[in-house]
Structure formats: C-alpha cells, structure tokens
Amino acid sequence: MDSELLEFTTGGRLTTDITAAAADFCRGRGDGLLQVFVPHATAGVAIFETGSRSEEDLELILESVLPRGASYLHRHGSPGHGRDHVLPALVAPSITVPVLDGRMQLGTWQSVVLVDPNADNPRRQVRLSFLAG
Amino acid sequence: MDSELLEFTTGGRLTTDITAAAADFCRGRGDGLLQVFVPHATAGVAIFETGSRSEEDLELILESVLPRGASYLHRHGSPGHGRDHVLPALVAPSITVPVLDGRMQLGTWQSVVLVDPNADNPRRQVRLSFLAG
Amino acid sequence: MDSELLEFTTGGRLTTDITAAAADFCRGRGDGLLQVFVPHATAGVAIFETGSRSEEDLELILESVLPRGASYLHRHGSPGHGRDHVLPALVAPSITVPVLDGRMQLGTWQSVVLVDPNADNPRRQVRLSFLAG
Q1: Other Cβ atoms within 10 Å of C98 Cβ, number
Q2: Phi/psi class of residue A46: alpha, beta or left (left: φ > 0; alpha: ψ in -120 to 50)?
Q3: What is the pLDDT of residues A21-80, one digit of tens each?
Q4: CA distance between the termini of chain C
Q5: Fewer CB under 10 Å: which end of chain C, C or N?
Q6: Which residues in chain A have their CB less than 8 angstroms from residue C114's CB?
C-alpha cells in the first residue's frame, strides 16, 4: 500500500477541494481503492459537488445541526469549538473511492472535499493511501 | 479489483434496497472488501434496516435536517434541489462491507441502501467493486 | 483478509471507545487497510476525540437531530427506538483506517468509537478486518 501525507492550506474555510491532489496521487496506479483519511479530530472528508455554492449550503446546514452558539461540554479551544469535535461523527474523516486504470471513478459532479470547521488551524494534513487490487 | 456499474430504478423514491444485487456481486469471490460507490452528486449509500418503515423515518429526519423549503444557494434544478446536494456530505456515497467466503458479513437486520432524494432522476447507477484479500 | 468478530460491553452507553482493541488487532500486520464494521442495525462507528466530553456533546447533538420523543413509524422495541434505526444512515456502521507497519495512522486526538443508542443491548459485536496491501 502506497501512502502519502499531504498538507493543504484551508485558509480557515470550511471546505477545501482536494480532488486534483487525489487524482494526481492515483495517476498511473492501475486498479484499486483510494483511501482518503484526515488525521484531525475536527475534520471530515466528503464527496459532493463544488463550485455551485453547495459548500455554503453545507455550512448553513452544519450551523443548524451543530449550532456554534449552543452549549458544549468540550472545553478546549475557542467558544463553540465543541461543535467542531462532534462534526467527524457526522462527516467521517475517512472515505474510499474506487480507482480504475489510475483514475478515480467519480461522477461528473463529484469532488473530494476536506471539511474542517476549525478556523484556528489554516493548514491541514490529509493522508492518501492506495490499495492495489 | 473487479468492478461493475449497475443501474437501479429508484422510481423517484428516497431509498432503494440494493442488498440482493450486492450479494449477487460478491457470490463466489472468497474473502475481501466490497466497496459500494454511487457516482451521483445528490446520492449516498447507507446500511440500515429496511422493511420496518425506517425508510420513511429516514425521510422525515432528512426533511428536518435538510428542509426542502429552506433557502439554498445552489441554484440548478427544481426548488429545494440545493438540499439534495448537501445530502452526500451527511450520507456518504461510499461504503465498504467485509466479505468472507463470498458473503457480505451484514448483521441480520442490515441492508445496503441507495439514498437519493433527487426524484428528477428515476434511474441511478451504483458501482460495486471487490478487492480480494 | 484476516477478520475477527469481537464483543464489547457498552453497558448501555451511547459510545464505547474501541481504539485499544483495534490497535491490538493491527499490531504486527504491516501495511494495509483496517475495516471496522458493526453488524447491528442501530449502531455506527465513528472516529473522534474521546475523553474531553465530546461523547456527551455527540449525545446532545444526536438528541436534537434524532429526537427520542418524535413520532417514528418503526414500531418494534421500546418507544423512541425508531430513531435508533435511523442513526446508521448518519453515523455509518463501516469505516476504514490506513495502517502502516502495524499501526493505525490516527491523529493524536482521534479514537475509534462504537456508537449505539440502543441501551437495550448492553453487549455489541464489532468486526475488524485487515486487508494487507
């Protein structure tokens, strides 16, 4: 299994499209599974359409599901940070994508997206692993 | 890795049980991981009990988490379609199932279910891949 | 693929940290993917921080997303049990973790957690599988 830890600049944004880096990683590898893993406790990885403002819709939905202003028992970090730690239970930090002939088999409108509500950390790592099969 | 793209008729329903097709795909393949992937930007794949009305309960919960009547920034398609594009961040379009001796190791009450709130597309594709191990 | 079915005592709690058992299972296995699968229809598996009360925050969030007091169509079990059957669509019963040199590549604050709101079953099974690569 080939595995690489990449670093991305999120710039404090909730979502960062990492499709291009994932495609680069898979190129030339033949058939197998790509595993995308975020080794951070406030982040997840999702597959959805980017570039049509669904990123902002996700932000609004997450604000309603995990209200920043609610009272959280988790006490580290800035106020509201507790919600960031619940996010990975709903947007998991791990996903797999089928790869054929070195290409992810994403649909036309699908992107691989790092989701991290923790604006205090503007740089994030993502581990890409390829299991050939 | 063997991989097949199957087509399912959802008939505009939110959920389509695809367990039988997944079981057929795994039969005879020995041990490994089944990967189920939906190459659509408004769909997810879930594992839960079907046939006891949990499909309708899921529909009610998704209506409360992703209200059709809310205001979404995503502007393509019919009104409320924006929520369909947020769904895959919460119900991911990718899941793996352990397979032993050609049989998915599902619990008694678990089914593999395509979840797609986009009633405008009554036919959907699902990619099944098997990574032997 | 090596695969084992382990049993955990949840004691009726929503969350059970199974990181130590997963680490034991991976030890000595080299590189590959760990697949964690819960063969129960009311349970999921998540990766998030434990020990800083995020477990309780998750419980509060799930109570708001899946209110116990709401009306569910699923009629088996005790009242409110219907919500337990929707949970796996949001907290999936399946997740993979990259493993290098027999060690899960979790971040410092990440734990592997069984999530089961069904307090009627104080013992739960989890299947751990390792696909070498």
Answers
A1: 25
A2: beta
A3: 999 999 999 999 999 999 999 999 999 999 999 999 999 999 999 998 888 998 776 767
A4: 10
A5: N
A6: none
Q: How far is B61 from chain C (nearest CA, A)?
A: 7
SS (H, E, C) chain A: CEEEEEEEECCCCCEEECHHHHHHHHCCCCCEEEEEECCCCCCEEEEECCCCCHHHHHHHHHHHHCCCCCCCCCCCCCCCHHHHHHHHHHCCCEEEEEEECCEECCCCCCEEEEECCCCCCCEEEEEEEEEEC
* Domain extents in chain B: 2-132
As a whole number of Å, the CA-based R_g of chain C is 15
For residue C93, what are the contacts with CB-CB under 8 A and spacing of at least 6?
B47, B110, C37, C38, C39, C40, C43, C44, C45
d(CA C92, CA C37): 9
Half-sphere exposure at residue C83, Cβ-oriented, CA atoms within 13 angstroms: 19
Contact B73 A90 (CB under 8 A): no
What ipTM goes with this model?
0.96
Contact B88 A31 (CB under 8 A): no
pTM exceeding the 0.95 threshold for the entire prediction: yes
Strand order in the sheet with C32-37: C2-9, C123-132, C32-37, C94-100, C103-104
Distance CA C81, CA C101 (A): 42
Cβ pair B96, A96 in contact under 8 A: yes
What are the two backbone dihedrals, phi and then psi, of residue A9, each rounded to the nearest 5 degrees? -90, 115
Q: How, if at all, do strands B123-132 and B32-37 pair?
A: antiparallel
Instruction: Please enumerate in sequence order all residues whose Cβ is within 8 A of that of C7, keeping only pairs 6 or more positions apart, or say none.
Output: C123, C124, C125, C126
E strands, B44-122, where?
44-48, 94-100, 103-104, 111-115
- Phi/psi-derived region of residue C76, left when phi > 0, alpha when psi is between -120 and 50, beta in every other case: beta
Quick one: which H or E segment has residue B83? helix B81-90
Under CATH, which architecture does the C2-132 domain have?
Sandwich (2.60)
Give the chain A residue nearest C66 (alpha carbons). Answer: A65
